[in-house]
Amino acid sequence: MCGIVAYLGKKVAQPILIEGLKRLEYRGYDSAGVALLEDGTIRVKKTSGRISALEGVLSDPCSTETLGIGHTRWATHGEPNTANAHPHVDWTNKVAVVHNGIIENYAALRQWLKNEGVVFASETDSEVISNLIGYLYANAKDVEGQSAFEWAVQQALRKLHGTFGLAILCSDFPGVLIGAKRGSPLILGVGNTEYILASDAAAIVEHTTQAVYLADNEMVIVEPDGFHTKTIENVTITKDLKEIEFSLDQIELGGFQHHMLKEIFEQPAALTTCMGGRIDAHDGKIKLGGIRDYLRELTRARHVIFTACGTAFHAGLVGEFLLEQLARIPVETEYASEFRYRNPIIKDRTVVIAISQSGETADTLAAVEQAEERGATVMGIVNVVGSTIARTTDTGIYLHVGPEIGVASTKAFTAQVAVLSMLAIELGRRRHISSDQAAQYIDELSKIPEKIELILQQSDHIRDIASANIEKDNWLFLGRGFNYPVALEGALKLKEISYIHAEGLPAAEMKHGPIALIADGMPAVFIATAGPQYDKIMGNIEEVKARGGKAIVVATEGDEYIGEKADHLITIPDAPELLQPMLTAIPLQLLAYHAAVLRGHDVDKPRNLAKSVTVE
Ligand code: G6P
Predict the structure, then answer these.
(1) Is residue 302 a contact partner of residue 348, using CB atoms and an 8 Å limit?
(2) Closest C-alpha to ligand 1, atom 15
């Protein structure tokens, strides 16, 4: 949610900033801008719209400066126009700031600064930061061991409530870049003679794989010959260099039209990596190294709460079925945004499991903090290595599926379910099911990637189904049991990228209201795979057809009977019911993808959304 990038080095900064912003654009794309120091003066270029629009307003020939900051915005305070675009400069044009996060006390600070004669040019909370630093800098006295710029930044940060990832320039210090963080991610890429400060590693890997991950309330002062880190309370700290774990080709399109399609097709390989080294189909064992020290505590859990947002929440719902069925542990799954405000009951031996692709979602992070304060053991299931949730939780399991760039989550969902399946089988083996049963599930789990491969081969067929129904503006997604959360996820995918209204439901609930909507060929997507509820869902298909609806059915290969009932049929290979969500999700991802492309939408950057929601 907003991407920031800054460069200090020997190369010309502007193209590096633009390239970095393009790689961060999935974090927000309402407006974009850069600020460069030219002959001791800060020059800002910014515009509403995407990075491509920003390129249109940049000076030609390109600025030759080697220090600059850039921003791509997901609007919170103030509409996405040019005035509200970042960078923001202070009213004296000495300090420029790019900001990711939300300043909660901005109204009070703004009023105070206005009373002091400071002039504001935008409606954003972020402009308060540049003006506050500018104001403090203008009034700075000589400080021992610190430049007035650094001092002013530090003093300003102490006055801010809320979250920030920041990159800051001052025109009086043409060789200094300052970064700071609280609640929003910030990484300093460290090259031989250059530094790239960015919201995430995607903007850095092209230049270096060595990085420093800042923690909350830390700042970094970067100069041409080195950098040093401090807390905002001015305590010097030493940070280790870490290797960034992904490579450039993981974040490039590699021949696919969109990142989302690439990520859908990556799923067989992604799940193989996610489960590789963790499941041993031969020995029938599961090894989850990340939670080794907490296995006993997890096995003894009396109560598990999954907490997450969006797609990760749907994975949590699948996890609820899995843990209850295999390990007989009572589970609740809660939206993180609700959990954090509901005064949750955390009893002895309650384990809270936060699920998050990015590891930065503000509500999920707040839920983690809330659970920790109340004494729960908190575990994370996270994709982004070193992210805030990964670092804040007591223990955890990484997805290890590489970066997910498409805003609509796909491979992270199936990997979250794969991790939850492994966890449930392992805890199940320790609590409820036999070793033989566990070994059978592990064997089935190891076959999931090749089964996904077979489903992907139906992509063209699924596009035809999307095309036949593309004029329809309302869809239903219906599933039961383990496939009920997949129905929710299918509906979410379609909404997110096609802007088609869709509702996901447990199939039996349809007759308690939503059935009134069925008429005139309204598409209803059923997940009617082999399992204990098959006959029931067949009944639901009949009910839809009897009322003029169209049944798009995901069924198990070889089910000839259902072929006669369905208006459109998609098949998946047979698998135990509890592992099916990793298969049934795939056709629904493809359906949403093709519908969005057919409707002419920007699949990777759907309107109003952002990949990583770092605001509440
Ligand atoms: C945003 C994204 C969703 C994602 C959700 C949770 O809304 O658009 O795709 O599922 O955040 O993100 P997380 O990174 O915590 O899984």
Answers:
(1) yes
(2) 356
- Nearest ligand 1 atom to alpha carbon 412: 16
- Cα(587)–Cα(303) distance, integer angstroms: 33
Query: Coil, strand or helix: which one is 468?
Result: helix
Please name which of 340, 386, 391 lies closest in space to residue 363, comparing C-alpha atoms: 340
CA distance 172 to 175: 9
Buried b (16+ CB within 10 A) or exposed e, 191-228: eeebbbbbbbbbbbbbbbbebbbbebbbbbbbebeebe
- Phi–psi pair at 63, nearest 5 degrees: -55, 140
Which of 309, 401, 419 maximizes ligand 1 atoms within 8 Å of its Cβ, making it the mutation to test the pocket? Answer: 309
Catalytic residue check, 309: no
State the pairing for strand pair 501-506/303-308: unpaired
Using an 8 Å Cβ cutoff, are 122 and 130 in contact? no
DSSP 214: P
**Per-residue model confidence as pLDDT tens digits over 589-614:** 999 999 999 999 999 888 888 777 77
Q: Residue 548: how many CB atoms within 10 A of its CB?
A: 11
Nearest CA to ligand 1 atom 4: 310
- CA dist 129 to 107, 135, 230, 395, Å? 12, 10, 19, 35
**Which ranges constitute the DSSP H helices of 401-456?**
411-431, 435-456
Residue 411 contacts residue 401 (beta carbons within 8 Å): yes
Q: What is the DSSP letter of 591?
A: H
- What end-to-end distance do the CA atoms of the chain give, in Å? 11
Cis peptide upstream of residue 87 (ω within 30 degrees of 0): yes
CA of 311 to the centre of ligand 1 (A): 6
Is 2 designated active site?
yes
CA distance 201 to 360: 14
Would the CB of 309 count as within 6 Å of ligand 1? yes
How much distance in Å is there from the Cα of 412 to the middle of ligand 1?
A: 10
364 Cβ below 6 A of ligand 1:
yes
Asked whether 37 and 87 are in contact (CB, 8 A), the reply is: no
Q: Is 493 in the pocket of ligand 1 (CB under 6 A)?
A: no
Whether 388 is in the pocket of ligand 1, judged by its Cβ within 6 Å, is no
Report the chain's C-alpha Rg in angstroms. 26
**CA separation for the pair 3, 70 (Å, rounded):** 8
Cβ 613 under 6 angstroms from ligand 1: yes
Binning pLDDT at 50, 70 and 90, where does residue 440 land?
very high
Top-confidence residue, 150 or 251? 150
Q: What three-state secondary structure class fits 148?
A: helix
Question: What is the distance between the alpha carbons of residues 136 and 155, in angstroms, rounded to a whole number?
Answer: 8
pLDDT tens, residue by residue, 276-318: 889 988 888 899 999 999 999 999 999 999 999 999 999 999 9
* Count of alpha carbons within 13 angstroms of residue 29, beta-carbon side: 19
Predicted confidence at residue 615, as pLDDT, reads 67
